[in-house]
């Protein structure tokens, strides 16, 4: 029984596979909680415009996500922290732009549909929360996970990546 438990723990914590995806999603959810709490506090408590609140929330969530992913999700101890930080920053800027612009575009599009706006207004004070959830899920699955897995937390030489291979 003890061997089975040890083997299960080893599989859950090893690098790669479905368990890496599960760890990445858990990390993403923790970062999303930080993002959403910061966004809602800034918008509701401080009256900050929702686009700026979304941007600042994404920054809070991104810092949490980077630290957890480096230490636990992708186990990137062989990568230099400065290289990970630089690559994360590049991907993170793309993520922030996708989240902020996506939330803005989807909110402004859906707000123009009167019956939908009235329906959502019955349940939420701020309409932008629903588009923010939709956009953040899409960006998380389609952009963040793949870029982190294939680019950020891999020990790659960036210079070699941009150089042409000479024959």
Binned, the helix content reads: over 70%
Strand-residue proportion: under 5%
How do the SSEs run, as a string of H and E? HHHHHHH
Radius of gyration: 19 Å
Main attributes?
mainly alpha; globular; 167 residues
Which helices and strands occur, and which strands form pairs?
Layout: H1 2-13, H2 17-45, H3 50-73, H4 81-110, H5 114-123, H6 129-152, H7 158-162
Helix pairs in contact: 2-3, 3-4, 4-6
How is this structure best described in words?
- It is built from seven helices and no strands.
- Helix 2 (17-45) runs antiparallel to helix 3, helix 3 runs antiparallel to helix 4 (81-110) and helix 4 (81-110) packs antiparallel against helix 6 (129-152).
- The mean pLDDT is 83.
- The protein is globular.
- By secondary structure, it is mostly helical.
Task: Write a concise synopsis of the structure shown.
The chain has seven helices and no strands.
